[in-house]
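FAQ
Q: What does a multi-component entry look like?
A: The components come first, one per line:
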Amino acid sequence: MGSKVTFEVFRFDSETEESSYQDFEMEYEDEWVILDGLNYIKGFIDGSLSHRWSCRMGVCGSCGMIVNGYPTLTCSTFIRDYLPGPIRVEPLTNFKVERDLIVNLDDFLRKLQQISPWIVRDEERAIEHGEYLQTPAELATFKQFTLCINCMLCYSACPVVSHELNFIGPAVLTLGHRYNLDSRDQGADMRLDEMLSSDGIWSCTFVGECSQVCPKHVDPAGAIQQSKVSGVMAYFKSFVMSSGSRE
Amino acid sequence: MNIKGSHEAFWWSLFSVGGVVSAMVVPVLVFATIVGPGLGWDVFADAMRYDRLSRLLGNQLVKMGLFVVIALSLFHAFHRIRHLITDLHVPVPGMPVAALSYLLAIVGTVVAAIVLWLM
Ligand code: SF4
Ligand code: FES
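Then the predicted structure of the entire assembly, as tokens:
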């Protein structure tokens, strides 16, 4: 234990609907991340503090919060980078707060389902035919987009999410694009129906904040721009197809 | 496929091609016609002489090229402005802003066509 730091933590009680900021002063160690500070508060100062976390290694995506105004993965960010403090910790913006630092995930999970983020086949191959093979080059087209950990930092950062509640949003659109690019998948038409809808990619104004805050360098803004190109192709193709079918 | 997103794809395609054109061509044009002569560089100042320029602009291909650059840049710019209004959270409904933006781009395009035609 060494120097001291103060956390200004957002507190919210959904029963009384009251919110406030509470200061917690603690001694910290040099290798502590923000999440360690929160766990210390919960363990030794105030057990009523509520926050989500699980893996502590930037994999599960559950510890995203706003730290000093910026969407941050708290298990991957050192206290020492914010000195001398105080360090303000708040729940992710653009989500409904359940309690303290915990936000409601229902909307996000609904959007996730909406995009069918799994391999869709017209007809499943029988097991005895073996696995669906894929070359390294085919994998490379979408591998980066598989690295998302659903931390939702990009939803907090996105100015469109903040005023279009139904906007499918960066991570989910990226996941849709990831499966559309997968050579084993045949569900692109179905997914594009959602992605090209009024809640889909066209609402994105290419601010690019999602890619700035993404801790996994997924580049959702890039994925959405790529799907816009696919969307344009699908749009013009639909005219060719319909004029073809009239003949 | 049922494309519910109406004609956003069309406007975006103009925006996107317009972005490429205005990024690649407009700086060159601005340099050649304004900055270069302004700096007093002979080669540009020479090229900007009235008789040369009016002969150049009399060429149908040059007119066509200019028309494409102007029209696409307008669609690019107004699409960006439309979305900037959203990003800045200006409290106006989206639909009229979109309609007005593209209308202005269309008006600009028509004016450009007429001016080039009459030249
Ligand atoms: S795209 Fe990046 S910021 Fe968004 S949820 Fe996935 S990992 Fe988090
Ligand atoms: S605790 Fe799992 S990503 Fe931070």
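Q: Is there any commentary attached?
A: Sometimes. For this entry: Chain A has two domains: 3-103, 106-246.
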